[in-house]
Amino acid sequence: VQLQASGGGLVQAGGSLRLSCAASGRIFTINAMGWYRQAPGKQRELVATITTRGSTNYADSVKGRFTISRDNAKNTVFLQMNNLKPEDTAVYYCKANRPLYSDSWGQGTLVTVSS
User: Fold this and answer.
1) pLDDT tens by residue, 18-46
2) Please, which residues have CB within 8 angstroms of residue 6's CB and are 6 or more apart in sequence?
């Protein structure tokens, strides 16, 4: 499975961005997809996940501001980020969970939120 993430950029605090992650290859092996982020000097952390059935999970720090969704027809997962804060600045990675195989990671997209 190959993942192509896009949509990062520079935005002022309070602004919005929408990240996209397009999956290709053996899509049928995926049971969930998620977004993770890694800020400078910090460990990679979970942001949000969505299963093939549409169940979602969010980190407490983004609840109410971020929304994860998917377009199954396009094999794409989105992360709508609203009311962005400087502490949201990080490289955002998408991940495909594959229970019977190795998980797949996208290349990362940088989100910078200025104060």
Assistant:
1) 999 999 999 999 999 999 999 999 999 99
2) 19, 20, 21, 22, 109
